[in-house]
Design a protein that fits this description.
The radius of gyration is 22 Å and the shape is globular. It is built from 19 helices and no strands. Helix content is 64%, strand content 0%. The chain is mainly alpha-helical. α16 packs across α18. The structure holds magnesium ion.
């Protein structure tokens, strides 16, 4: 736990509270309680079997959504503590940020969004908020897990304007262009630090990218030169680890230094000043920002669009589309709880209500559950 908080950090004292009033926790801060609720949620446990880049069954050492989220939390907490920001809130946001992700990574999300186009679309950030606000059923008195406003605003990183209008207070900042807490801002960048560096590691391990290609990418090439001149005899795997940990460290240090400088200029007194600052106050230097973009571009071109990843994505699209069409056609094929919910939402809101319930059900699936459901529903020879 952070011992000293900057005046502009999020705190229990300035929190906008929870949607349903609850007594203050006895031995924890409000944000520790948020984190604990997230860790105990079903959606959090499912992250273990959801794709980051590589489908879960491709190998035991690749990142999953769960290990990705833990790496984001670890990086974000380091930054929060160095900046005297609220480490508990930061950790909670990081652990929750991907709760709404579909099976099969971005391919799964795009496939579901395509199917939901005429029913209000599907956004994974918004779905993460739906998970904690509505879909987790653990409490007698309310739907969801009743997180603090600050945790919820951190989870909702992006949001379209029409959706923001429907969300009330949590959507306001997308309409009036105000900022979330510094804790939310830094967790967003910690997410990018984590996936850029672990995707290099997983990409190299899988053999889909190689060291030679990465020599043109500054964020990799500079620490790589340092490592091979210090340890010319080191084998490739350990060299990669030495490089990847330097990549993380360089970005984290740059972010802390650049943000400290900007905070000294902007001089926010409190979290309201942060919200009204007109721009994000957690930043990389211009040079690091550019290096980040270059690495991201490299990964897009060479890893995320690699033909083997593309084959996986193509299968994922088929699975998601077929599951969606099948359930939309006949909601009695859904398990009873999900089916009842689909029919209840259909009678309230029509086809878009039914579609939302089907999307919620599919988005909650792990990769392997989606594959199993596909087989059970669509292969006549498979046991149901
Ligand atoms: Mg993420």
């Amino acid at each position: 736990m952070t011992t000293h908080l900057a005046s502009y950090a999020a705190s229990d004292a300035t929190s906008r509270g929870r949607r349903f009033h609850e007594p203050a926790p006895g031995h924890r801060t409000e944000f520790q309680r948020d984190r604990d609720r997230i860790i105990h949620s079903a959606a959090f446990r499912r992250l273990e079997y959801k794709t980051q880049v590589f489908v879960n069954h491709e190998g035991d050492l690749y990142r999953t959504r769960l290990t990705h989220s833990v790496e984001v939390a670890q990086i974000a907490r380091t930054i929060a503590r160095a900046l005297d920001l609220n480490e508990d809130l930061t950790e909670a946001i990081a652990l929750a940020h991907d709760l709404g992700h579909t099976p099969f990574g971005h391919a799964g999300q795009d496939a579901l969004n395509e199917k939901m186009r005429e029913y209000g679309g599907f956004e994974h950030n918004l779905q993460s908020l739906r998970v904690v606000d509505e879909l987790e059923e653990r409490y007698a008195e309310f739907q969801g897990i009743n997180l603090t406003f600050e945790c919820r605003e951190g989870i909702l990183k992006h949001c379209s304007i029409p959706n923001a209008r429907e969300l009330g207070d949590i959507g306001h900042r997308f309409i009036d262009n105000t900022q979330p807490s510094l804790e939310a801002q830094l967790t967003n960048l910690a997410d990018a630090i984590a996936y850029n560096s672990h995707d290099v590691d997983d990409g190299l391990r899988s053999g889909l990218i190689n060291l030679n290609q990465l020599k043109d990418v500054a964020l990799f090439a500079e620490p790589y030169q340092e490592v091979i001149s210090l340890y010319p005899q080191l084998n490739e795997r350990r060299t990669t680890y030495e490089v990847v940990r330097r990549i993380i460290n360089m970005q984290v240090s740059d972010l802390i230094n650049s943000t400290n400088k900007l905070l000294q200029l902007a001089r926010p007194d409190n979290i309201e000043d942060v919200r009204k600052a007109g721009k994000s106050l957690v930043v990389f230097s211009d040079e690091m920002h550019q290096k980040n973009i270059d690495l991201k571009r490299f990964l897009h071109k060479n890893l995320y669009r690699h033909y083997r990843v593309h084959r996986m994505s193509s299968k994922a699209i088929t699975i998601i589309h077929k599951l969606f069409d099948t359930f939309m056609h006949d909601t009695r094929l859904l398990p009873p709880d999900a089916g009842n919910r689909a029919r209840a939402l259909e009678s309230e809101q029509g086809a878009s209500g039914k579609a939302r319930a089907v999307a919620d059900y599919i988005a909650g699936m792990t990769d392997r559950y989606a594959i199993r459901e596909y087989r059970r529903l669509l292969d006549p020879l498979e046991p149901t």
